[in-house]
Structures are given as structure tokens and as C-alpha cells.
Protein: Aminotransferase
Amino acid sequence: MTIFPEEVVTETRDAACVVAYRRLRHGVSTSRQIGYGRNMYPAAPELVAQIRALITVLFEQQRMTDYSTGFDGSDRHLISALAAEWLGRFDIGPGDVFVMSGSTEAISVVTGYLAGRGYEYVLPLPCYYAFEQSARRWGMPVGAHYNGDGLLHGTRSGAPKALVDIVPNGVTGRRFRLPDGAGDDFRILDSVFQVSAAAGKGSAVDDRHLREAVRDFDLGRGCVMLTASKDLSVPGLRAGLLITRDPGLRRYLEADRFERCYALNPLSTGVVALYVALMCARAAQRKGTTAPRPPLFPPEVASSRPAADDPLATMLWESPVVDILDRYLRGMARHYAAVLTVYRNRLVPLGIDLDSRYPETGYSLFLPLPVRVDGPEGAVVWCNRIGREAGLKLNPAAIFGGSDEPWAVLYDCTRPWVRFNCSVAEPDAVGTVSILETALR
Structure:
């Protein structure tokens, strides 16, 4: 049995999933991994070139040498118009959009707002660690968890509920059924992937789950979180977007911005605008309203901007970057499909079922391995041993939220559930599966 140092096991300031991660990696030195938490597909060279050019212009405009300029409000006008067109929510205005340092910051700030108002979370399981970690830091209870079938496990209390709906789930890659009777006094809609290996002909974008979920979504008592990092492979730029019409949350977000960083990061803002423009162009093409000139862009969104000489206008209207990135996303989707084929050919003979667990969108899938373990704790111990002895990092259920009790109720935890990533290079997929195959013997 693996013995973990006391400081690794008994850290009380972190959520249980974060403590489990530290224990999982204790003594593991390999770089080989089968379930990376980021997109491993290389960023588009054209995107890199556009970002370089954008930085130069931002310095010329003194946006990088000043705290704020007249362009800031212009950016919010553009992003809100694009988001409204893409999502079909024409009630979204400039005061409803907030550029964040990734969805992680959005989760933290919204959790702080909810904690101060006595809410408790209802979270999907598995779940991105930030919801549990932010709840622990802000003193917000996690009242319940639910699985993909909408089965709920938790405690009953009179506290208002904040229900989190991740579209699709960032670990399984699939849409979860929402639990009945959970309560949703406030709802968070978090969308992490839009690129799919199974997307329709001519497009890699499959945003139907998001558009369906947001159609009747009450932005007056909830928020939508979006990120560009996973689809564009730029997690280091921390480009996230939060949309809400909740008056209290909007005031809280403005106050938080003023206190912590005062001004927007114009580079992150540019990447968010580019990403939303790309999604908007896809939506326009589906509706047959694409402008006749490149790039693909809906005529409903005016190409004029309040500020003159705007680099975003140049990037979106005077260069073919949106069309180029669309072709890049199609290549990414084909790559996902190729790696999924590798997994299918190699994992099914090992007794690992993929048929009902293919990701609907994104590069992440969650599979049970044919090994007997003693619950989630036993899975952490087994995966840690594989990391130390076989040289392969595995990411089991315990690091994706919750604790042993909800996992044992909501899943069959006599086997280790492990995340796989289909954005890795095909030779890496073959190599890591070969190590896993040896470990399973």
C-alpha cells in the first residue's frame, strides 16, 4: 500500500479533489500522460501571427502603456453584438459582457458573489476543480452532486441553490441531464468546447447544446461562462467571457474589476472577440446569412466601431483570419477523430467500452478501466502506483470534484474511472495506451 506524507494527505485548506491530486502525483516523475487537461493540438500559426500583430498595434495605440482608453467600451460593444448574434440572445448588451482571465477567474468571482448571499452549489460529477476549490476558499457549501443521468446525491437544506450546468461536461465531453428537484435559484451555464470530431459536414463547430441551453436561459438570475482557451489551444492567454444580466452580479463584477486589476487586458479582449467572431461566423453560415465577402461574417453585426483605427476591426474585417481559423478547426476535428480511432482499436480489446462514451464535443472522455479497486481511494492509490512504477500519469475520478461518498453513490467505483484526451499526437496516443495495456496485465 502506498504511504503518503502527512502534509500531502491532511492539507485542509484545499478541496478534497485538490488534495487527491497532490496524493496522486506524489513520487511520480514521468511526463507521459493519457488525460491532459488542455488541448494538445498546436495553436494555428495564423492565430499566432495575428496575436503578434495585435500586440504591436496595441502598443502603438498606448493601450498597453495606459490603464484604460476609449477602446475598452468599444470592445464590449463588439463582443456583446457578436455574442448576441451567435447565441440568438439579442437582449445581451455591452453592460452584460465581462472579459475574464479564463473561466477559472469567472468561477472564483461568481462563487464569491454567491457565497456572500448564502447560496450553496449543486455541481455535476465529474467537475472542473475550480468550482470545488473556489467554494472551499469562499466558504460556500457544496450541497449536492449529480451524474450524467441526472441522479442527485446530497443534503437537503433551506439555502438557495446555485446549479452548475457544464455544456458539455469538461471531463466526459457529454451533455448531462439536469437533476429534478435540485433547485436553481441561480444557474451557471459553463461552455468549454465547441469543436467536435463528429461535427456536421463542412464545419468543425457543434454548438447546438450551448445554443439550446441558452435559448430560454434566464440571464437575470444566472450567468454564461465561455472560454477560448480549449478550442484555440491558447490556455496561457487566459481569455474567458462571462455574460449576465443579473444586476447584483454585474455590480459585483464591476467592483471586483476596479479593486483587483482596474482595467481590461486588451490582448485577452482581442482573443475573446476573435473567438466569438469565429463562432458567430459559423452560426451565420448555418443560417445562410453569410456576407458575400471574406471573412465569413454576419451582416447583422455592423463593421463600424466607435473608436477609429481599431485593430480588432482590421483583424476581423480586413483579414481572412476568421476563414483561416475555421479551416484550422476542421483540421483539429479530424485529428480528434483519428485519435479516437486509435483509442477504439486499442482499448476495446482490453475490455474498455467506448461506444456510449464518445465525447459529443471536445477532446475529453471518461472511461472505466477493467481493474478492481476499493472505491475512489483505491483508484488514487492504484493510479499513483502506475505513475511511479509504469511511468504513466493517470487522472482518476477523485481529482474531478466531490469526495468518496458522492462518487460511490453516483458511479460504479469498483473500477477506476480515468480521463482520456484525444487531442494528443497519434504516436503519443499509441505509446501511452501501450503502457496502459502493460499495466493492466
The first strand starts at residue 97 and ends at 101. The chain is about 45% helix and 10% strand. The first helix runs from residue 6 to 9. Strands lie at 97-101, 120-124, 142-146, 152-154, 161-166, 186-191, 222-227, 239-244, 364-368, 417-421.
